[in-house]
Amino acid sequence: MTVDPTDESAQPIGIFDSGFGGLTVARAVIDQLPNESVAYLGDTARAPYGPRPIAQTREFALECLDRLVDHGVKVLVIACNTASAAVLHDARERYSVPVVEVIRPAVRRAALATRNHRIGVISTEGTHRSRAYLDAFAAAPRAQLFSQPCPRFVELVEAGTTSGREVLEVAHEYLDPLREVDVDTLVLGCTHYPLLTGVLSYVMGEGVTLVSSAEETAKDVYRVLADRGLLRPDTLPGPGYGFTTTGDPDEFRSLARRFLGPEVATVIGNIGDEA
Question: Catalytic site residue 64?
Fold first, then answer.
């Protein structure tokens, strides 16, 4: 992806995740900003971040974000709930480019969407333990938050199992307690979860609003670029999409196409290397 290094608006959007889930954010960014180029980095060799100590998560995440900034991006998107909780403050002090994360955009949308102020958040164990959503909802004092870790959802999505009896049984196990406390809004607090929207909506019922952190983050990216005059000019050639993994490129390509689709063509092992 070659661009004029003097034209900041022509630079790609840098998206980082500990693994594959952030590809749902990339999908939302591509859909909402179809003229923009994307540089994605998944730290799949060291995923998942959830069980790791926060200091190690911060070290790994900043290392990956440094690589994206060195590559030349105009905005950084931390498309990982665990990493967002661990490094957002550090990242905004460390880099000159704007930094967008996945937690606060979803929280803002949920606070606006709820009618009875009872909001559920489903997430990984790591995000649940971090209390990141509880802290973010402090700005909405009327909200009653009900947090539910859903550890099996990620393994089901990555196995390609997003429907069927097993998924439905697991969804009921995790979501029935939230239905019992009458939440009317559910935050999908993991970027894998948009691939389970069908079963989540079915189990929660039509009266519950689902808030996708991926969709809300993409809206924030648009707002940041528009406010700073960084939207990619229409006069440039078509956008490019680059995908990098710290793990096995072939494995990443196979699984990533489930999340994103045909835009995942070339996957490289290091930014700047050839496949």
Answer: no
